[in-house]
Amino acid sequence: MASLSDKSVWDEVEDGIGEEVLKMSTEEIVQRTRLLDSEIKIMKSEVLRVTHELQAMKDKIKENTEKIKVNKTLPYLVSNVIELLDVDPNDQEEDGANVDLDSQRKGKCAVIKTSTRQTYFLPVIGLVDAEKLKPGDLVGVNKDSYLILETLPTEYDSRVKAMEVDERPTEQYSDIGGLDKQIQELVEAIVLPMNHKEKFENLGIQPPKGVLMYGPPGTGKTLLARACAAQTKATFLKLAGPQLVQMFIGDGAKLVRDAFALAKEKAPSIIFIDELDAIGTKRFDSEKAGDREVQRTMLELLNQLDGFQPNMQVKVIAATNRVDILDPALLRSGRLDRKIEFPMPNEEARARIMQIHSRKMNVSPDVNYEELARCTDDFNGAQCKAVCVEAGMIALRRGATELNHEDYMEGILEVQAKKKANLQYYA
Question: Which of 12, 101, 129, 297 is deepest in the core (most CB within 10 A)?
């Protein structure tokens, strides 16, 4: 402790109120000291009072926390928020003994509808942030007081949840032969806007909302969509056109709505609709309920593709074999902007496809893929893959350890025989 003889103490006194103290008499200094002692006692009593109040407040908070914990025990009653209202205590003034505490409460109130089909109007007491609530939200309420205790995840159709691809496909762009132009167009329309959004913003252009892939069967449309899903980190939802055709009225449209709602929640996301011609056919007058239901599903798809509130974080890839029967409203710009044609592979593409599918096989060096490609005229990509599989089976039958050129030629004859048989069968 510093003594009065220390020079630093007197320096501090002189810097502050030293001049005033030096001018005071001894009696004035004693009086000032007594005054300061009384102020210190008052402050100590005030600190003691605040400490007691704080302890009482902590006990009350602890008691209320226990009550909340008891009231928040499961199970909850599931309810939907219908409407949110702002309550102003100045709207209804009450005098005297008629003053109600609930009427003096400021904040939001909610109208909820429970799963027992009862409607209630109640205050949002603060366990859930009232600003984050919106009409249509699913909430858990106390089964006795009906107070909102917790917000619940949005409810989606279980069939839509099953459409989400959890495991990433393993296909790569290098596994696809003869479709370099189509790969580039798909990357520009789908992958680039998601991974490099700033490039489009700098140019001031809007990327395409969707892509339509069309062409004969077996030309690699679904394969390219799987490769696109593997290359992007976006959520991938796979819908099949026949899945959206439902028996009950409005069920197919609800599936489409839920699929796009799930995609928006998990944005950025890609929705792949295979066999689009199942629901996207041209509209016509029909008295059959099934045809009208298919048209309703397509109208909901049109609305989601280019509705009142478009979402640029949700991309749509559609694939079909019959582009000629699709409704013109689906094909217009603004919905499926980019149309990518998948033609039958040419000679070079067929050779590349067979090389890709033979990479993991034990193939003899004398296999000439160019000659095989010339022998597989009018083959699509799937049939070229079938040639490689048949060649492997032929080599397996004769007990060989590697595939030679003759195995591939016999495989071509096998696939050609099946192709002709199918044509004659359906003729």
Answer: 297
Instruction: Classify 142 as helix, strand or coil.
Output: coil
Contact 345, 383 (CB under 8 A): no
CATH code for the part of the protein at 77-90+103-151? 2.40.50
Amino acid at 324: D
Superfamily of domain 159-341: P-loop containing nucleotide triphosphate hydrolases (3.40.50.300)
Instruction: Identify residue 95 by its one-letter amino acid code.
Output: D
pLDDT at 251 over 70: yes
Q: Is 317 in contact with 143 (CB distance < 8 Å)?
A: no
Convert the pLDDT of each residue in 166-189 to its tens digit: 777 788 888 888 888 999 999 988
Distances (CA, A) of 168 to 225, 226, 260: 12, 9, 20
Q: What are phi and psi of 158, to 5 degrees?
A: -60, -30
State pLDDT tens for residues 6-31: 555 556 545 555 677 777 788 888 88
| C-beta separation of 171 from 230 below 8 A | yes
How far is residue 375's CA from residue 347's CA, in Å, rounded to a whole number? 9
Query: Are residues 353 and 227 in contact, defined by beta-carbon separation less than 8 angstroms?
Result: no
Q: How far is CA 247 from the centre of its chain?
A: 28
Task: Give the global pTM.
Answer: 0.68
Q: Does domain 347-426 have CATH number 1.10.8.60?
A: yes
